[in-house]
Amino acid sequence: MSRIREPNTMGVQPKLQFWQIWNMCFGFMGIQFGFALQNANVSRIFQTLGADYSNMTVLWLAAPITGLLVQPIVGYFSDRTWGLLGRRRPYFLYGAIAASLALVAMPNSAELWIAAGLLWILDASINISMEPFRAFVGDMLPPSQRGLGFAMQSFFIGVGSVVASALPWIMANWLSIESTAPNGTIPDSVRYAFYVGAFCFLMAVMWTVVTTREYSPDQLDAFERHAVTQESTLTTRSVEAPSTETYIYRGGICLAVGLILTLIVWFFLSLLDRNLLILTVGIGLFGLLQILVGFLKDRNRGDYAVAMIIDDLFCMPRAMKQLAVVQFFSWFPFFAMWSSTTSAVTSHHYKTYDTTSTVFAEGADWVGVLFATYNSAAILAAICIPLMARNLSLRSVHMINLCLGGVGLISFVLINDPHFLLISMLGIGFAWASILSVPYALLSNVLPLKKMGLYMGIFNFFIVLPQILAASILGVLVEKLFHGETIYALVIGGFSMVLAGFFTTFIDQPSPKKEDIINHT
């Protein structure tokens, strides 16, 4: 078991050895088994059970909505947890158990609504495990090692995703397990892949739980006191929290706008896409949430979890606001890719819409290989990014990688031979590794340890919101502008990622000390 040394009298957080960092990050590989199997195969499962493209974008809402709800709540409570398993580890373990059970059940779904329900359960469970892992790096590592910690997580993300994404293809081509099935039945190659993924998920998280001990609250307090003199403006709120009246006023406007837009979409459903209701109802619900917070604060209950989360959302530090814009346009493309690639590749490159055909199975399996490729590239990128940051600023590195990913997505419509799509996935892999490491490395070193989980959960809003937007409008754009050709969902995503690269240039440059955190990993 990894032993944590007691803090010295000065409260300086000690550095961990390489294998201690390896052990504490190893569980992230298991989490990626769940995510990768979901991302590469859920659209295939939905199509097999009768969903069309418009329905799939709604069904895929499970991931962003559960992340929006679960991550800040888990972050808030994990900041306040201390027990037999520590602070973050209980959430790793219980989330992994629930997610593994959902992985076993999902490919045995007999109906579309069952698969959709299991996707919600799977996503909620994965988010319970995943959110504390981000804060775990901030808890366990001193600032000089956090870049290495996030790079290590990116490495395990890549390894887990490569293997998991390719599992159905491996089952079919190496183990000769059947990859086709009667209409409405999930192929055996997919079912067995999910079983293997469930086992790997649970065992990897168990490894971290067993081999890593967490710092006690007293130790973390000592580290916090020592770090106070090193905090920057990033750790402070950029503005004061809104007043009770402001919350109620703004909430009322959002609620009214949401209701009006919902009625407009409802009455003109014959001309508009029903997925737009996701966006309009969401605006109204956000208004209700603000009104609720206003009433809580009016009754001196501003210390409730929901009030604290919304307060910190509106009072984000300047750096978080700048990164939030970049994150928004970075994650829109990945939702488009995860939800649309199977349909896009099978229809555009393999020229089939028949989910029972051998050609469709071949195309869907190839999508798994493509996803494994971008995750393989992410492993290489996780090693290259610290090296690039030695000669370039972090924002320049991030901008380059995002542009590579955007070009990779746009190239899907220009390439006819699906085998050449492997080249496209290389750029997407570099973008993926950068998104998973650079923003967190910039933030984690300046966030207070006592609220690390909450801040990471709030930062997740800007991963979730673009995915909700994508689910709302992608179907409309593809159907109305591109005659249902889903390949153009990837093109739209590519332009969004290039735009994210542009907004990266507006991020405040980190101080040389913060740059060194990455440069010396």
Salient structural properties:
globular; disordered N terminus; mainly alpha; Growth Hormone, Chain: A; 19 helices; 521 residues
List the helices and strands and how they pair.
Blueprint: H1 18-48, H2 53-59, H3 62-79, H4 89-105, H5 112-140, H6 143-173, H7 188-211, H8 217-227, H9 244-267, H10 276-298, H11 305-314, H12 318-349, H13 358-388, H14 394-410, H15 421-444, H16 452-459, H17 461-481, H18 487-504, H19 512-519
Descriptive report:
The protein is an all-alpha fold and 521 residues long. It has helices at 18-48, 53-59, 62-79, 89-105, 112-140, 143-173, 188-211, 217-227, 244-267, 276-298, 305-314, 318-349, 358-388, 394-410, 421-444, 452-459, 461-481, 487-504, 512-519. The longest helix is centred in the middle third of the chain and has 32 residues, at 318-349. The radius of gyration is 22 Å and the shape is globular.
